[in-house]
Amino acid sequence: xxxVKLAVASLSPTVGAVRSNRARVLDAxxxxxxxxxxxxxxxxxxxxxxxxxxxxxxxxxLDAQRRALESFATDTADCPxxxxxxxxxPVGALLFNAAAVVHRGRILGCVxxxxxxxxxxxxxxxxxxxxxxxxSLDAAGLPLGDFLFEFDFGTVGVEVCEDAWAxxxxxxxxxxxxxxxxxxxxxxxxxxxxxxxxxxxxxxxxADNQTVLMYANAVGAQDGLIYDGGGYIFQNGRLVLEAxxxxxxxxxxxxxxxxxxxxxxxxxxWRADCEHHVRxxxxxxxxxxxxxxxxxxxxxxxxxxxxxxxxxxPSPPPTDARDDALDDxxxxxxMGVESYYTKTGAFRSLGLALSGGRDxxxxxxxxxxxxxxxxxxxxVADPAAAGRxxxxxxxxxxxxxxETRGAAHALAEALxxxxxTIPLDEAYDREVEAAxxxxxxxxxxxxxxxxxxxxxxxxxxxxxxxxxxxxxxxxGDMSEKAVGYTTIGGDLEGSLAVIANVPKTVVEALLxxxxxxxxxxxxxxxxxxxxxxxxxxxxxxxxELMPFPILDACLHLYASEKxxxxxxxRALTSVCPGxxxxxxxxxxxxxxxxxxxxxxxxxxSPLALHVGSLDLDRERALQMPVVQRTEW
Length: 632
Known about the structure:
The chain is an alpha/beta fold. The strands form 5 sheets. The chain has a 7-stranded mixed beta sheet with strand order 15-14-11-10-9-8-17.
């Protein structure tokens, strides 16, 4: 029996906060040492923060990470734990996204990332160089390359994030060269549904390579990217540990490495691959450490889950997969707001314009949850404290509905949020008259009259936020943003767009879920109304656009699946049954036209939280030319 205690740490670094990040890592490292951990893993680029983007072009930023790594090694010289942590490492004109291995005051070596993603939200190949088989470089006195690390408990291979997502990644050759444990340091962003994909993929890698696989993921958010944290330990495909997501913590488990060795001997297919590798390939170089690691004599053999080696553990009560996904989405959005608020250090409170419609109601609920996370123990001791961190403004005009007015006040009261009513009609009349004078006496058009109201709200929110030091939350959703059902200088205004990548149908579903969870007054009242911006009498968004289920289907099929309008129309006949085919074809054509003509609008909107495989941040998942025609 070869028992070893392993740990994965979910931490929330901030890009550039090298001293603070190092302190965070050091605290967790000491906790690991006290807990008898033999091998502890931290997230990708945990010292410099991820993604650093072009900040890595500042040499002083890279030098600071190297100093932080060296001082971390010095400060953990008395710790028996082996630590794996991520940072950026320059070598001459090359720069690597690497993982360093530290033990007993020594930096044993660094292993660079090989698979550099340049898709969706990633741009790593813009700044980083790739590792590869047999690479061996001198990084200012540190070995950097394709290495294994041997300790008294076993042999360890190290890789970085995307390396595990590719079946032909470095894990294969490292396991065939003798690695019994693979440590993957990661900063893998959240998107709806990713947890099941991630878990299944990692289990497959651990099974294919007959290895113990440790996966440590970052938590928190950086700009619009959200990291859901958590971590895993798999042994030869079997799940040993699944860490809690959406919070910073260290999680550990004990494994018997002799079990991995035995399973490799029994697995004839894997053994045949190993024989072929040994005969045909150069084995991965090994860096050995002769210094003792954590004492394993007090470890107990890990008991089987549920107490039986022959039966699976009892299953927990089944949960609804859609409810679970919506709960995760709510937590992710709240964590995105929390991290933006705390990591920038520029704000003293949260604020938004609350109309009582679906979008602003959901944004207020997210802000309330974010405020609870920001306040932490204070919010637990004083539940009303979260509401006091938020200020909301209701700015009605003659077109505002009584139903949404009542819903806004009801929800604000339920959450303990101060809601101030500031009517717009007087200012609106003045602006309309000013526009008439500028037009030489001609009255402004209906669209302009509507936009005046939205712009007044945006201007007032900025005026308040500038003086109060508040984080002004923008409340628009993805569906309306995609087709330009927005106002530049109006509802597109804000410091952070909270739900700008959440489609309207998901907004609706999430509000239903939050009403079921919390039962707050006002949510049901809003859901009972027809959605609309209330910039004209009896205004209904679906009448002016198209039914939101059709609009969201068009958004997915056109912007995500990249189908042409004719193919979108064909797909809609099965995706949205019950509608006339000619009507669906007209919707597809109209969507494509509105989407293309609205790009100039949404590229001017504030930074948005990324929660899906598609978003409308031009610098993230969908990079669209602003000037284009659809003649193709």
